[in-house]
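Much of the work behind modern protein science is quiet bookkeeping, done one molecule at a time. Below is the pair of lines this work produces for a single protein:

***
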Amino acid sequence: METLRRLAPTTLQVNVGKRCNQACHHCHVDAGPKRTEVMNDVVAHRVVTLLERSPGIELLDVTGGAPELAPCFRWLVSEARRLERRVIDRCNLTVLFEPGQEDLPQFLAEERVEIVASLPCYGPENVDAQRGQGVFEKSIRALQTLNALGFGRSDAPVRLDLVYNPVGAHLPPPQARLEADYRTHLGERFGIRFNRLLTITNMPISRFAVQLARGGETERYMALLVNHFNPDTVSGLMCRSLVSVGYDGSLYDCDFNQMLELPLGAPRARTVWDVDDLGELAGAPIATRAHCFGCTAGAGSSCGGTLA
């Protein structure tokens, strides 16, 4: 089998820690309120230095946990915007109501951060079942707050994308069809606007893997992913143009590999201190394992939605 190799990286995805105000059943990060892992200032400063030295990186993609709870979050965002890079905040929405985050929506708007927000359904039953009681109602209020600041309007400079992932052990439905349903239900019931819906396949790792094992569904789900392998997705896999950084400064080919502690395929680059320009990684091999079938099944899956 031919080795999967990198293109020149254009996205730096940074996981600033595992602390989160939610503990979702599907979470591949195994994040939650009791997690204490967080990026320190030394690593954060090196990330910005690396971003400055890597002109090919167009996008800083900040994730967690709830990334906004990390002390370095706002500084990272502001520095990346100073360097004229696009910034994505992968937001769970309810974090907007955490103590000390009252000014977060305004900060994100002023920095023109693109928000990618988790909302696994347009109704409360599925959302609360996956993410916790009352999460849907809070998420709707958060979306309305963001809409009031211009997020999600087609004529505004601040983007708001929503993310769907299946509640159970199955592939997402077609992205375009589901997006139309979201627009209808959220628009008519709550007056909510957004730019795009991204559908993401649940990865058979971490907390979702435990859930599969408890239900005796591991073998069936893996067979589903393997049997729906789509070769047309391979050219667009996010690992080909993305570099993932852990809260401790370790480098990975993607956020999923990071959670499995599967090192970067490039043999001599293990941390942010081992490279001076992320462009050096172009052509390097990518570390793959069985979970990678999750990104290549059906229409494909990535942090930017479907691939084919």
Summary: The chain has one domain: 11-202+240-282.
